[in-house]
Amino acid sequence: MSYKKLALIAAAALMATSAFAKAPTLDAVKKALPEVKNIESVTATPIKGIYEIVGEANVLYVTEDLTHVFAGEILDIKTKTSLTAGVVKKLQARDIERQARFAESMRDTIKTALVANQKNFLKEVKGNGKDVLYIVSDIRCGFCRAMEKNLEQMTDITIYRIPVAFLGAESMRLANAAWCAQDRLTAWKDISDKKAIVNKEVACNTPIKDNNDLMDNWKVKATPTLFRADGQRWAQGLLSVEFTKMFLEKGTYETTQAVQAAQAAQNAKEKK
């Protein structure tokens, strides 16, 4: 158990012994925490005087008198379970569902825009290039590097990497350097794999910011995010080679069902 979690549990236990006023209302919490956007609920926790608030898919905790707020995971010492993890999981699932609905509503628009913006992407053709996959990728993203290892095992596919800089200024600097290189695709792979070090600023006209803006319009928040040529999106994390092929062949819905079934089977196996 981490010191952070122990500190949160200890703080909560101390607060529980104090006397507080009546439970805070949703309006009162919004007024006290204007920097937390879209607060949607205030719920009592099993700890006296501590309330859970949910806003923008984040879970925070406040004291009853709204004088203190903290973020982190609260653990029940007796049951050794998290009071936070279940809520976070539900919020993540809801966010994925919302993204999926939005992606479907934007599907035709995305399909057209993917083709129109290919000049801003990094293209790689493997074999006959029959299948087409677009991957939104940050050069510093670890999951993107793992996805690249899977893509290396695939044949007869055209891959369009959509270079973005979601991870801050350093991502922007490195992505620009890759784009300004003579061999952009090789530079992107080498910098991502840390086989090449960029020590100096490299300047040229790059589409990285435009790609960021385009993904913002499509509500793409994480990398890697995958698109089929028809605009269907996969935004639920890293895919194995098997499931990437399934996504290309059958689409988002069938792949989601298969991935969830595989995860459930794995969880059941681990519990035995």
Looking across the biggest beta sheet, what order are the strands in?
7-9-8-10-11
Q: How many DSSP H or I helices? A: 10
Biggest sheet statistics:
5 strands, mixed
CATH class of the largest domain: Alpha Beta
Q: Tell me the distance between the termini.
A: 23 Å
Low-confidence stretches: 1-20
What general form does the structure show? globular
Strand content: 15-25%
* Class per helix and strand makeup: alpha+beta
Overall number of domains: 2
CATH fold group of the largest domain: Glutaredoxin
Total beta strand runs: 11
The share of residues in helices is 40-55%
Polypeptide structure, described:
This protein has 272 residues and is of the alpha+beta class. It has two domains: 81 residues, Roll (Nuclear Transport Factor 2, Chain: A); 167 residues, 3-Layer(aba) Sandwich (Glutaredoxin). The chain has a five-stranded mixed sheet with strand order 7-9-8-10-11. Strands 1-2-3-4 form a four-stranded antiparallel sheet. A hairpin with a 5-residue loop joins strand 1 and strand 2. The longest helix is centred in the middle third of the chain and has 21 residues. The two termini are 23 Å apart. The N terminus is likely disordered.
